[in-house]
Amino acid sequence: MTALGYNFGYLDENTKRMIRRAILKAVAIPGHQVPFGAREMPLPYGWGTGGIAVTASIIGTADTLKVIDQGADDTTNAVSIRRFFAKVTGVATTERTGEASIIQTRHRIPETPLRQGQILVYQVPMPEPLFRLEPRLAETRRMHALADYGLMHVKLYEDIARHGHVAISYGYPVLVGGRYLMSPSPIPAFDNPKMDRMPALQLFGAGREKRIYAVPPYTSVRSLDFEDHPFVPVRADAACALCQSRESYLDEVVVDDQGGRMFVCSDTDYCGTRQSHREAAE
Amino acid sequence: MTAADPSPGLTPGFAAPVPAAQSCFRALLEAMSRPGLIQTLTALPEAPAPLAPAAAAAILTLADADTPVWTDAGPAAEAWLRFHAGCPLVADPAAASFLLATASPPDLALPDAGTEEEPHRSATLVLQVAALEAGAGWTLSGPGIETTHRLHAAGLPAGFAAAWAANAARFPRGVDLVLCAGDSLAALPRTTRLEETR
Ligand SMILES: [Zn+2]
To answer: Which residue ranges make up each domain of chain A?
Structure first.
């Protein structure tokens, strides 16, 4: 118990041990969804309970935690989760990608490349990449067992036939280690290439479905595509209005009540750091 | 069941169980994520012979009433594990979630390798070896390894590399390995390919 009367990391030791065992098996079988039983977290589903359960089971006093929601450190969701962990662990928190040892994220991968030794924890609303195509869990389990992903290839091919391209902007399915079809969680397809052979460990926690999966460092993560229709990560063809980046993923934001709009980086730390470097250079 | 309340004749477990289990878990996670790299544990229990401190720490961190443990370590170690980890001990290697081998390792084909649909329901072997040395011995490749890692595990029987190749060949089924010596450990998940360097 901490001085405040919580278990360190909120979860009791039995729950942490169960989740820790699931995490190790997830790392040993890259891309495979491992079920875990767990007590309920003190937040409603949709607030990242799966990611929180994973972070709570791995975090220690030596860690520095960063939490982002759609790339931003300052949204209600990110602030709540960061405060929660500060309260139940006392660990240091940061908004700097480079300073964090654990980054919990909802729906983005930071623009600053992650390094060896860092852990990226994704909040996952739906872990099963095939759920829209095959609602029966017993069937999807069988497909994963046989690596039978024909259904997904047919879906992508139909997209191409109908729209001329694959009509998936978020949660674009990937093949991990050449074996398991995996949902990257609803990150923009733009972020998919960052997952491939990433030096950091990637852990995924789905709270409602109670599944954990993982991508070890330096592991192949390939976005599904076809030879004549290769995967293309797309971003808005614009520069960030604040830092002028042409490499980062952009959000379109409304700036006034006249319908004025501009593009800004979704990653607030990346954008802020670039702006302060520009000011320093001037 | 705390370190402050040892049962008569038993050496203590972790002095501070919550932070010790967390730091040992992170060493295990790093070991499993970066196969073959040696991790040194900082918080160790006082385990009875023949248990190596790192092997005892790994079991204390991961095993509990839900995970049957098989071991060849003898009655003193069994009593210590039962008390500090609270795990049931089983005589059948196929019935164990964790196998803790201090002498020659069990046949890799015996433990539970999981099923094609549930490969995570496989056993983890904690094997004590005479010594672990980086930069020599096997050449390792696979997930978690940028190019190659080298690891020498002293004291494994001849034929281990062939048995490991057979374990990898049944992926996604298979067992995962934690090699322990003294206060250090290294892991070989089932995805790691191992070549004997000549
Ligand atoms: Zn910007």
So the answer is: 13-127+180-220, 235-282
Q: Across residues B55-68, what is the average pLDDT?
A: 98
Residues bordering ligand 1, an ion, CB closer than 5 Å: A 240, 242-243, 245, 265, 271
Model confidence, pTM: 0.96
Query: Choosing among A15, A58, A218, which should be mutated to test the B contact, i.e. which has the most B CBs within 10 A?
Result: A218
pLDDT at position B38 is 98
Residue B198 pLDDT:
62
Range of the domain at B76: 17-195
Q: How far is CA B16 from the centre of its chain?
A: 21
Q: Is A76 on the interface with B (CB under 8 A)?
A: no
Q: Mean pLDDT, chain B, as a whole number?
A: 95
B116: domain CATH number?
Answer: 3.40.50.11310
Per-residue model confidence as pLDDT tens digits over A142-199: 999 999 999 999 999 999 999 998 989 999 999 999 999 999 999 999 999 999 999 9
Instruction: Report yes or no on B133 lying in a domain.
Output: yes
Phi and psi (nearest 5°) for A226?
-125, 150
The distance from CA A218 to its chain's CA centroid, rounded to whole angstroms, is: 17
Give the C-alpha distances (Å, rounded to integers) separating B94 from A65, A141, A163, B86, B123: 40, 24, 52, 20, 8
Third-level CATH fold of A13-127+180-220: Rossmann fold (3.40.50)
Express each pLDDT in A205-263 by its tens digit.
999 999 999 999 999 999 999 999 999 998 999 999 999 999 999 999 998 888 889 99
Ligand 1 midpoint to CA A252 (Å):
12
Contacts by residues A34-43 (CB-CB < 8 Å, ≥ 24 positions apart): A34/A211, A34/A212, A34/A213, A34/B120, A35/A210, A35/A211, A35/B120, A36/A210, A36/A211, A36/A212, A37/A210, A38/A11, A38/A210, A39/A11, A39/A12, A39/A15, A41/A10, A41/A207, A42/A10, A42/A84, A43/A80, A43/A84
User: Which positions in chain B have a beta carbon within 8 angstroms of at least one beta carbon in chain A?
Assistant: 17-19, 21-23, 25-26, 28-29, 32-34, 61-62, 64, 66-67, 115-117, 119-120, 122, 124, 143-146, 171-172, 176, 189-191
